[in-house]
Amino acid sequence: MLTFTLMKPEGILRLHPSGPLTEQDFERLRTEVDAYLMGHARLNGVLVRAAEFPGWENWAGFSAHMHFVQAHHKRVERIALVTDSAAAGLAEFLAEHFTSAEVRRFALADERLALQWLQAAS
User: Fold this and answer.
1) How far is Cα 104 from Cα 26, in angstroms, rounded to an integer?
2) Of residues 99, 116, 2, the one with CA closest to residue 53
3) SS3 for the chain, per residue?
4) Rounded to whole angstroms, how far apart are CA atoms 56 and 59?
5) Which of 20, 76, 80, 111 ranks highest by number of CB atoms within 10 Å?
6) What does the alpha-carbon distance between residue 79 and residue 13 come to, in Å, rounded to a whole number?
7) pLDDT tens sequence across 26-65
């Protein structure tokens, strides 16, 4: 399950995965982000907040996630990974290789700093 909020004035997308990610999660996300990008050149930032990465419900969820990244990665300035997960290093490594965005990891307790870092991109 993926909940998200698009902070429109700031151009920041906040993602909170809390259960296995589904194809429908990325369809909802794509609809919202594409509508925003019709009137804006880019997203200034994406904040991903997760205590642990929940994985995907199935192959369709994984595939939808990869298609979303492929379609949008060139229009994102910065990505903040907010997590204390042991897998955060791997997530940061992968994000740096699949996007042109600047990627930075923050501890869960530093979510406010992550948001400030993203806001500085605008």
Assistant:
1) 23
2) 2
3) CEEEEEECCCCEEEEEECCCECHHHHHHHHHHHHHHHCCCCCEEEEEEECCCCCCECCHHHHHHHHHHHHHHHHHEEEEEEECCCCCHHHHHHHHHHHCCCEEEEECHHHHHHHHHHHHCCC
4) 7
5) 80
6) 9
7) 999 999 999 999 999 999 999 999 998 888 999 999 999 9
